[in-house]
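[audit] Reproducing an earlier prediction to check determinism. Same input, same settings, fresh worker. If the tokens differ from the archived copy the diff job will pick it up downstream; this log only records the rerun itself.
[audit] input (207 residues):
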Amino acid sequence: MEITKIMLGELASNCYVQPVGNGKCVVVDIGGDAPVLFRRLGMLGLEPAAILLTHGHYDHIAGVEQVREKYDIPVYVHTLDAHMLTDGHANLGDWISTQPFQPVQAWETVEDGDTLQFGDSTFTVLHTPGHTSGSVCWRSDDVLYTGDTLFRMSRGRTDFPDGDDAKMLESFRKLKALEGEYRVLPGHNEESTLSFEKAHNPTMRGL
């Protein structure tokens, strides 16, 4: 599966474009720079069918409303992070950005275990709180979009107002218990694999 990574926004957060057949795609996290995404989608010959969010922080949602409005597509976010889509204080935008925040006008909420079907791809919600209360990983075939939960050789911060270190450790236990091999596509930095993280990630090894 050829997935395109685009670094967007002031913090160069990873946005992923996954083709789902018939010229459609699903976009995971949009941290800003919507025009950059529009151009890349045009180059790829793809049109989004949906936007999936790993959590509600500004650097992962700043470009969502422009894309949602242009294509009139659904946005999916965990129930516990939905309030961040309209609140620049809760999503940290007031603190980390000098740009005005464009609130998301419509979305649908998901819970742990929910599955969504787009074209030939299924996406399953794994609720992985810790970085935020509503952080999730999205699983599609052999791919895990881990947002700011699991990074290569590291983990997401828990020192934000909505962070919880104990919940982060439970989320790592949940990911460690997954069987099989997965590509790990995080919200920042380079990709990894689940087997590599089980063997080398300090937090995962310590569980």
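[audit] rerun output stored. Observation attached for the diff report: The mean pLDDT is 97.
[audit] end
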